User: What shape does this take?
Amino acid sequence: SEVPVIKRPRVGYIPTGSELIPAGTAPKRGQNINSNASMIEGLIKIFGGIPTIYDIVPDNMRMLSDALDKAIEENDIVLMSGGSSKGEEDFTTRLFEKHSRLLTHWVKSVPGRPMSIAIDANKPLINLSGPSVAALNGMLWCVNAVIAKFMGTKPYQFPVEKALLDEDFNGPGFMEMLRMYILRRDKNGVLHAKSAGRSLSANGFYISAIGEKEIPAGSTIDVRLLCPASEY
Assistant: This one.
């Protein structure tokens, strides 16, 4: 009549930044749409967590502290984004130092190198960099593993397929690098990878290993698919 189950962790996400506005609002000069919330909510579900997305919190230390207290009380894992670098209003890492036990600030992975990780009430606090691809990178390698650790499972793996590089890959070498790609099949069914750049059409990604600097065009790499293989 009873069976053991795995408890899914509750993961709270606090978007921060006085420049953020809700999705559906027309942005004015200097404003950014809070698009990360939708991406992070979706990824939390894919990774196995139960998401709670909080309202945008402006760059105000007291308001950020209050929001963090509430999220820690209500969740097993707390995510924030923005305020992780060195600007005058980059409060989040300073808040982690004051409020919690800061484990690290800056990581060997780009984009999103300024992310920080802390512990409070035996709960992990993770501050992701604000740019969308930087936040995605932190979700892929860090948050994915943390959620899996809570459940005693392996991290979620996106489907992997081999693809031919249409152009040279140049990585930093001394740290990992996430590169978004536009993937397409040629008439022979071979999958090709072209750097997405600033395009919103990326449908796959590659993460270089530490020490990996240059991969010439025409090489084969293992890309991770963001869509079912039949759609390429």
Notes: The helical segments are 36-47, 61-74, 92-99, 132-151. The radius of gyration is 19 Å. Residues 12 and 70 are 10 Å apart (CA to CA).
